[in-house]
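=== RUN LOG ===
request id: a7f3
mode: sequence -> structure
chains: 1
length: 329
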Amino acid sequence: YLNSSGFSKMMGAKTSELLHAESFGGRDYTWKGSRATSKAFTATGSDSAFFRELRAYGISFTLPRSQLFSKSWHLDEISIAELDLLLRVGSKADVSMGDSPNSPGVLAAGFGINPDLSKLSFDLIDVADATFRWGVSSTTQGKIEGAPLTATKNRVAGTWQLKLGGGKLTQNWWRDFSIQSLDVGISPERMVFSNGNLSIGDLKSGKSGRGKLHGEIILGAVPKLQLELNLAQIPIEALVHPAFHRYLSGTIDAPLGIEGSPNKSAGITAKTQAKISDAYLMNIPVFEALSLLLDSSRLRQLPLTEGTIDFETGAEEWRVNDLDSACDK
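=== RESULT ===
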C-alpha cells in the first residue's frame, strides 16, 4: 500500500492542506525500509499561502514504521534536492502550515494510515539547491538562487529559521551579490535577516568587496523593507544600473540603506553616503566641453583619489545628491 498511488494521493491531499495550496500534483512515493522518496511535486498557493508557485524535486524522508498508524508523525532526515518558490508578497499569508480553516480534511485513508499533518514534527529540512523568487516588475524583481539551506520550525511560536550557506542574491539590477552565509527568521508578521555575509562584485576579475546584511521585512498587504548592508571596498558598478557604469567607476565603503515595498510603484530603492576611493569620473558632458576648450583629454577621465558621494538609486534612476572628492594633480 505504501508504494501505491492510493497512498501517494492521500499524502498529496494532506500536503496540499498543510501548505494551503489551491492545487497540488506529485509523483508516487517509493519506499525502501523506512525511507520514502518522491521524484517531484508541484503546488499553486491559495490566497492564504506564503507562495504563489512551488516546485520540489528529489524529496525524501525517513519514518520509523512504528509511527505509521499514529496520528502524529515525526520525520527524520528530510531532504530536498531542488526547491523553487515564487513567494506571495503582500498577502495575508500563513506561514504556520496547518489545516486551512475551510478545509474539509481528508476523510479516508487506506489500511488505517491517516496521519494528521498539522501535527507533523521534524528536526531539520535539508535543501541542496533552493531558489526563492519575488516581485513582478523591474523595480521589484529579485531572487536568491543556488542556495544550500537548512530549515527548522518552532511549533510553539509558529516560526521558521532558515540558514543559508551560499547562493546568489539578485535584486533589480544587482547581479554580483554572492551569499557566504545568511540567517532568516520567518514569522507571520516579519522576516528578520541576520549574520548576512556577502561577497559583492566580479570575483573573476578581482573587483569585489564584502558586505554585511541585517534588518527586516515587515509583512502584510504592503510589505516594507528595512535593511542595511554595510559595504567594504565594493565596486560602485555593482550597485547602480549598467546604464550608469560609463560615468563613474571606483570603490566605496558605506552603510547602504535598502527600503521600499515590492507592492509600490517606486519599488525597492537604496541610498548611501559613502567614502569613495580609486575612482574615475568619466564622460560628463560639461567636462567633455572643457576638454575641447582647454585642448586637454584629462577631464574626460578625471581621477578621484578620495572623498564622499551621496547617492540614491532605484528603478532606472541614479540620483547623485553630492560628490566631494580630491582629484589627482
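=== NOTES ===
Confidence is low (pLDDT under 50) at residues 99-108.
The two ends are 82 Å apart (CA to CA).
=== END ===
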